[in-house]
Amino acid sequence: MRRTSAFYIVAASLTLAAGAASLAAQTTPPPAGRNGGGGRSGRGTAFAPGDTSCPLGQTEIRPRTCMAPEFTPPSILDYRPRTTLVADAHMVKTSKYPSIDFHGHPGQLIFSEQGLDSLSRALDALNVRMMVSADNLSGDRLKSALAAVRANAKMKDRVRILAGIDFRNVGPGWAEKAVAQLEADVAAGAVGVGEISKSLGLSIKKPDGSRLKIDDPELDPIWDACARLKLPVFIHTADPSEFFKPIDYNNERWLELALFGDRRYPQDRFPSFETLSAERDNMFRKHPKTIFVAAHMGWIASDLKRLAKMMDEMPNVNTEVGAVLYDIGRQPRNMHDFFVKYQDRILFGKDSFQPEEYPYYWRVFETHDDYFDYYRNYHAFWKLYGIDLPDAVLKKVYNGNALRITPGLNAAFAAAK
Ligand SMILES: [Zn+2]
Fold it and tell me: What is the Cα–Cα distance from 25 to 43, expressed in whole angstroms?
């Protein structure tokens, strides 16, 4: 009994001390404060007629009841809550099987011995056995990079290069020249094509000033040549769909769009996400013998049913995971099943070359860890989860699929240590 009454007294005085404001709100008319406090049934202000959400600056504290915080809220830049979740964390420094980065942007690193040496050290620390340069090299630039790679004993089998296509001046005579240049680049040592950049579709113009569409028939001979030469075509089309939408407070990429002006595609100046996707898919369909790799999971990793439909309709299309880890790691169960189902058609690629970011991919692919940080806040305001792929799937994603679709990688991958 004594314990019970002592507890009651402590609890009651805590309520009095800490809850003075709310007690006041319950017993006296609400002050006209900026928190909208008060109301007959307690704190908060009921929705205005017709509203379906709270006004800006307030949050829904009970169904259809809004309230503003008493303190000035932090901006999305400054709100950095530390998680209280205590759970196993499996950090993964190296990929479980030797990996091929199919979406490499090594830039200048592959043009000099010193650059290649530093690349080799970075890749060793990650278990990336091979980097595929997707920097659109062609002609003399390609030859100069290939010469540097071949001269480097450590890296001669660990870098392979995709050729670029020059989409300027597409018109009569363009295709013959482009195919001839591609054949020369393959003879020099290119093993595929890419990365075809998003500017195809978004911004490149034909000589008459019209937008060069991704499925323009004048491009057909180059895609057919890629089939004949057994070159996979690595293509980046459009960008995240939010980049094409109004930059309002419902936009999932608001911060990124506010930071980077060149990622905004106002719809009075650019084709829509749907237009670009439709052109790409039409081009994929027109060339069933050409092997395509849609970069960034086609920017539809947030809609796996749509991505699955694309994969089902077009067996010549593969996909690649660079820079969409935020979508992979936020739907671990469905993404696990997607990877298992399409395990023969998903390639590992990283995109922007930041060695410290690769381990986040390994952790998402290989563990079942819960709720951990992603490497770029402005991409995503959420946490990631491991998708815990089986070993057989990991091997294919890390190297088997790239080797199967790219004949020019196989001997080097086998020889590389
Ligand atoms: Zn890229």
Answer: 7
Q: Tell how far the Cα of 198 is from the centroid of ligand 1, in angstroms.
A: 9
Contact 186, 161 (CB under 8 A): no
Span from the CA of 263 to the centroid of ligand 1 (angstroms): 14
How far does residue 162's CA lie from ligand 1's centre (Å)? Answer: 12
- Encode pLDDT of 273-313 as tens digits: 999 999 999 999 999 999 999 999 999 999 999 999 999 99
Task: Report CA(85)–ligand 1 centroid distance (Å).
Answer: 35
CA of 76 to the centre of ligand 1 (A): 28
Tens-digit pLDDT profile for residues 124-176: 999 999 999 999 999 999 999 999 999 999 999 999 999 999 999 999 999 99
C-alpha dist (Å) from residue 72 to 77, 78, 79, 204: 14, 12, 12, 46
Give the chain's radius of gyration (CA, Å).
27
Task: Give the SS3 label for residue 391.
Answer: helix
